[in-house]
Write a structure and sequence with these properties.
By secondary structure, the protein is an alpha+beta fold. The protein has a single domain (2-155), classed as Rossmann fold. Helix content is 25%, strand content 32%. The chain has helices at 40-51, 85-97, 141-155, and strands at residues 2-11, 14-20, 73-82, 108-118, 121-132. The radius of gyration is 17 Å and the shape is globular.
């Protein structure tokens, strides 16, 4: 499983940014180059906050300074992951252990984290997962797949 794209919306000073990792040569290092105060650290923070949830007391820090007193809306961080054969085997084995199964291999997964604010006060965090091809599964199976994907991301495929 590897990340292929990130989309960041309204995170600190980023209005909207798409980082397509498939446009660059295959590698594990992607340098960010830019002038001082151009947003390199903000990009890295947004990707970090996608991986790690923010503690309640720190969530206001993802607001742009100009919005810190009155922002109402959503801050979204989305990641697209390419699913490899070894990942599909783990997903299928995991689902079979729960007496569930999927008909087709999953090609891509999109995970979106949405932080909702009302008048600069944090309201809720919602996380969604969608698959391509779209899965036709019983209610609750998508949540089980999400747990499986998070385990693969944390512990690897071996």
């Amino acid at each position: 499983m590897k990340y292929t794209k990130f989309i960041v919306k309204k995170f600190k000073g980023i209005e909207e940014l798409e980082i397509d990792l498939t446009k660059y040569p295959v590698g594990k290092i992607f340098p960010l180059v830019g002038l001082n105060e151009s947003g390199k650290t903000t990009i890295l923070e947004s990707l970090n906050f996608f991986q790690e949830d923010l503690p309640d007391g720190k969530r206001h820090e993802i607001l742009h300074k100009k919005d810190s007193g009155n922002f109402t809306g959503n801050i979204e961080i989305e990641a697209e992951l390419l699913i490899e054969d070894s990942d599909n085997k783990i997903i299928k084995d995991f689902l079979e252990s729960k007496a569930l199964k999927i008909e087709k291999d999953i090609e891509k997964i999109t995970i979106t984290k949405k932080y909702t604010f009302d008048n600069a006060s944090f309201e809720k965090l919602a996380s969604t997962l969608s698959c391509k091809p779209e899965l036709k599964v019983k209610a609750g199976t998508q949540r089980i797949i999400k747990v499986c994907i998070l385990r693969i991301k944390k512990y690897g495929t071996s």
